[in-house]
TrEMBL record, chain B:
InterPro entries, per database record: MetI-like, MetI-like_sf
Entry similarity comment: Belongs to the binding-protein-dependent transport system permease family.
GO biological process: transmembrane transport
Native source species: Neoroseomonas oryzicola
Bilayer topology: Multi-pass membrane protein
Gene3D superfamilies membership: MetI-like
SUPFAM superfamilies associated with the record: MetI-like
Protein name according to UniProt: ABC transporter permease
PROSITE patterns assigned to the protein according to its UniProt record, in alphabetical order: ABC_TM1
Subcellular compartments: Cell inner membrane; Cell membrane
A Gene Ontology term for the protein's cellular component: plasma membrane
From TrEMBL, chain C:
Catalytic activities: ATP + H2O + polyamine-[polyamine-binding protein]Side 1 = ADP + phosphate + polyamineSide 2 + [polyamine-binding protein]Side 1
Family of the protein in this entry: Belongs to the ABC transporter superfamily. Spermidine/putrescine importer (TC 3.A.1.11.1) family.
Role of this protein: Part of the ABC transporter complex PotABCD involved in spermidine/putrescine import. Responsible for energy coupling to the transport system.
A GO CC annotation given for this chain: ATP-binding cassette (ABC) transporter complex
Record key words, sorted: ATP-binding, Cell membrane, Membrane, Nucleotide-binding, Translocase, Transport
NCBIfam families, A to Z: potA
Keyword Cytoplasm: no
Keyword Transport: yes
Gene that this polypeptide is encoded by: potA
Ranges for domain ABC transporter: 9-239
Signal peptide interval: none
GO biological process: putrescine transport
Taxonomy, superkingdom: Bacteria
Protein name: Spermidine/putrescine import ATP-binding protein PotA
Amino acid sequence: MSAAGRTGAGWWMLILPAFLLLVVFYIAPIAQVLTISVTEPELGLGNYERLFTSSAVQRVIETTLRICLITTVLALLLGYGIAYAITLARPRAQGWWILAVLVPLWISVLVRAFAWVTLLRRQGLVNNTLLGAGVIDEPLPLVWNEFGIIVGMVHYMVPFAVLPMLASMREIDPRLLAAARGLGASRGEVFRRVFLPLSLPGVIAAGVLVFIFSLGFYITPAILGGGKTLMVAEWISLQILDLIRWGLGTMMATMLVAAILVTLLVFSRIVDLRRIFGAGA
Amino acid sequence: MDGIYSPGAASRSLAWATAFYLVLPILIVVPVALTDQRYLSLPQDGISFRHFATVLSSPEWLGSIWQSFTIAVAATILSVTAGTLCAIGCWRISRRATELVRVMMLLPLIIPSIVYAIGLYRYFGPLGLLDRFLGVVIAHGVTGIPYVVITVSTALAAFDPRLEQAARGMGASLSQTLRWVILPRIAPGIFSGAIFAFIHSWDELVMVLFIASRDVFTLPRRIWDGINENLDPAMAAVAVLLILFTLLLLLADRALRRRNEG
Amino acid sequence: MSAAAGHALGLRGLTKRYGDFIAVNDVSLEIGQGEFVTLLGPSGSGKTTILMAIAGFVAPSEGAVLLDGRDITPLPPEKRNFGMVFQGYALFPHMTVAENVAFPLRVRGMSKADRDAKVRAALDLVQLAQFAGRLPKQLSGGQQQRVALARALVFDPSLLLLDEPLSALDKKLRAELQEELKALHRRVGRTFINVTHDQEEALSMSDRIAILNHGRLVQAGAPGELYERPRTRFVADFLGKSNFLEGTVRQPAPGGFMLEAGASRLAVAHGQGAALPPGTRSLLSLRPEKIALLAEGETAENQVEGRILSWSYLGAGFALRIATPDLGELRAVLPAWKSPVAPAEDLPVRLGWSADAAVPVEEDAA
């Protein structure tokens, strides 16, 4: 029963504070970023020309895309395994598995990056252990490079990959799997022909989520990349804070937002975005 | 799905490996924080709490913790108030326009904080909000709204709209309906949203890097400097304290939800 | 619960459109003081929309709602002072029974002492005083329904609106609560407006029934009147079951005519003044229970030969499907003791009914 016409102004007033806050303190600053990208240092698309002319700009984009794709694939793979285990686990065990996914999700990204540095640096626990055991003769370069970034990012992204996949796996009727086995399919066949296709919407949603989160990721790459491997977010920060090149920084920020929105737009045709962002979308 | 169909050995070991990968690196900071050495390492001759003592007696660390806490509380109040009212309004009106408003409320989750941070850096300058308590509260409060909108919308989805009609039909005004009927029913959702908004502000670093410098020096900011400048066991102690604090909040959330479902 | 006189409600040309869809189409209806009126129709007939418009939850596209002659169309629901029992009851799950019933008083700023007295009286009225401290989920469906009634009546509303009040209950309980609701109506003397899709409920409880179809008011009247004198095919079909006989009007006279259907000629005494022009097509509604099986030598004003196609035993009687040469298939329901023969398939029978048993009805506009 729609009560159109009876929904007085009162209800709209409830929306107003959040709407104003968002417009004045969120949309406006971001709109300003987009504006600066075409007005500084001078009016025009000069900053965007750099996309085609500057090899430094191209290198950053290339690095970012490469790291994001690798991260997405690995996070999906690991996330799928854990979501699959959760779905098939007994209710009591499910609680523990979910805890193993959710607790890392809410622990500060700084703490996690710090933990990885502790583990992976030259005199870190991994290298020391391996040296002590005589497996290696000199420390492995595990961090402050692309490897370190990917280890940290995948670690950050796995929980985000698990949640949408888990949601779609839980919609699968378990009797279908039993039925398939009853009809003579092997365990592998049941997975390939029944479970995997049915869970695919969740996999796509998870992939989109992880990819767009990875694109603009700042803290983990900055700490674990050690300033040598630059991804766009850190590069933007460098342009603004250290080089004071607002035009270039905002241009890259605009491209970042555009890339994310285009990704969402393309995939919204394939999967329901609600899958990605929960019930609120 | 218990019992009907169980996973094979390969997928089981992948899941276990992933779980270890997710949890162990975080746990490693605990022994490191308890080391008796002066540098980052595992305890050698025994455990020691002196790095915790260092942190808890340092005015810098305590100052940052307090600052982060007050900012997070203020930002949470902002997010919860705006987000809850907005979610209720959108739920009740439920038109195309409100669907758009809801999508708009999710923008802070979608757009990377680096983009917002550089925007704020320019935007706050003329407003005199750079390096101010209020500036950080606004930034964190606005970006915390999506968490509240999502949890409250989820709670409202389970709320029978006829209860609201019933209240109005019996003569309750909008504010009476809100206070006596809607809010008590969705309180668990609001509380979850508050916890997530709090954690969001408490952990937030990217914006702070741009809009705060000396007067506002939050805990994440101090940790960031610590990681980049001097990696010492005190950092591990801070990390352990943070982990404990987060776990405490999540347990509170869980307990409250259990109580409401039971 | 004073026996204050009820209020009169009027609907004037009420229309509600949702885009191109017309949910309610030009409905006018007068509901008198203290009357128990039921809006009856299939789902999608617009009955609930009308109730919601009366309650103020739906703003009409056109037309007006009048209370004692005063236009209340622009008033929001909380200003109308109508009691309402919602489908599924809409009891507040976080409040006890007493708190639920006290809610309308609380929003009116009544003092706690006055509130308590009124709540007790209202709970007594529905015999639930001992459940005051329980939560709704601890009550049975029938008890919840009665809490909803107490809550809707406690603030002396001008009208009581009931939206499918019994639909969530099982059949037996439903019959019981129909009685109770009727008794309650008599006791409180208020105007009740009920919405249902259940024709039995409508027939047993209401002073008057308004039948709706596709958003239009098809016919309104006392239950007996509607059942005996349906105006259209839809009313005859929806309220009870009916056979429909089609034929041509012959020998029209005031109050009756002969209907020619194939080789049969049927006497019709409709008792209405104007004569139908001869040669027009006419449709008759004939209730199955008005058809008798004629014994050897027995006669009736109308007699038709036929064969039993199938039959079923209902306990109290038989339901028969009978094939006739001119009137097609007829359904008859007759008490077992009145049947002159034991029914059997293919058995030839003679059917009979009186001239005033069949009623001319109109075809419904599409």
